[in-house]
Give the backbone structure.
Amino acid sequence: MTQARQMTALYSSLRNRFLLSLCAVLCLALLALVAIARFQIMPILLEDEEQYAGGELDRVERAIGSELGHMRRLVEDWAFWDDTYDFVQGERPEYVDSNLYESTLETLDLDLMIFLDAHNQPRWVVGYNGEGEFTSCPGTAPPCDWADTYIDFLQARLEGENEEPQTWLLAKPELAMATMSGIYQSREVSPSAGWLLMVRPLSAPWVEQLRDTTGIDLSLTSIAQDNDVTHDGLERISANRMTASRTVEAMPDDHLIRIDTLLPRQRYQASLETFRFALYWTVGVLVVTLLVVLWLLERIVLAPIRQFSHFTQRMHHDALPPPMPASLLKRRDEIGTLAQEFRNLLDHQHQQSALLLELSQHDSLTGLANRRLFDERLEKAVHMAQASGHEVSALMIDIDHFKLYNDHYGHLAGDECLIALAECMSRHLGRQDYLVARTGGEEFSVLLPDTSLEAAIDHGEALRLAIQERALPHATSPTAACVTVSIGVASCHPSASNNPTALMQAADNALYRAKESGRNRVKAGAAGRQEWTTTPSS
């Protein structure tokens, strides 16, 4: 009886009943949270993990696509070169000795270059055989018979391809990227003289570079289409690691290339830990008064977060970035730290954006503007000239016999020569409204806004003499005992229907005439005109 009275008194107490009810509520809440985690949260987290893996594979594919784009531009540069056109036509026998040597493949990171004539027959083959030995042959006769596989593949593609440049991934006989383009003259419309194929191996160093670029641990494998492992998939191998794979199309048609990646499960683990923390927090919240919790949550968390969220939304909509709210920066808790770190991150991002813009517009060796910045400023200068009525001129500068200089003194000396000439150009043409740019290996261009053709000729001749007076030794030059330059000058009048391309084409034609006339001289002309003038060379 005494024990029964004690139990009755225990259940009769409101405090105890509340505590018992709270325990029951906590148990029900835990069961509910477990059910939610099992049937809702976990599937969402796993789906998010699959989307993350798919996004990483997409990044790898985009990186490979970007490399294919670089290859396409490379083969177009060679295929739209007049020397290449003449070589495939049977002219310029010196083309092989001048261009098709081993260091060319090393510089371009290529394994193979194949030139086909207009009848799709091999004109020249240069590359590395299966033993890694460099070979260069007129056709596929030994020792270049190893290239027959590529010749057959290329001719098979030509039967069904249009005249546009084509890019592929190769799964056989080795993992590689292949790019093919028709060979055309650059200065006039003409039929294709043949085809040019370039092959770049997907070697271990290249894959390692791709890993560094994407930040993803990946590998590439050639597989047959009827292989069971060709299917895309995601496998969770541990609590912290998973593997994701995807197949991409390749040649020949009966093979594919599979991308295998090893990815961390940090997102999943972080989300799981967050959910567990929320579970514990929810249990604690049930113990305290709901109103107090709501008031504290509003005052300490929700209001600052809303303020921070409003600040981030204004960043997207306002033209000028708004200042970070001072009330957030004054806080000494995690939100204050987050606000300060976010502000520091924004400042760092702005600095990095400015630095990237600077790097993207200048040549890393000479510090001059690069072709991208030159083209932008050229187009702007031509439009401004058309609006103001002033002429705009341009210089195109080429170092005479620079290949001979590199062959004789070495590429390091060649780089020092380029830097010295760049400093000379900047010193003589470094006015604020003039732009000196390195637009090719040994080619420079100068933009001269509001400058007549006569004044541009004077600038070009003064620059030519200044470079000649530098007296940089050039023992193998047929032109002079020192480094010299040939300069093409052109200008366009705003009344003429000219464009930036026409101006630079005129300067290029003038440069060509300077070279044909013996080099170390200045030739000039105007865009859209047939008259040309020549400054005397000294």
Summary: The radius of gyration is 34 Å. Residues 14-79 form the longest helix (66 residues). Residues 529-538 have pLDDT under 50 and may be disordered. The chain has three domains: 51-283, 323-359, 362-534.
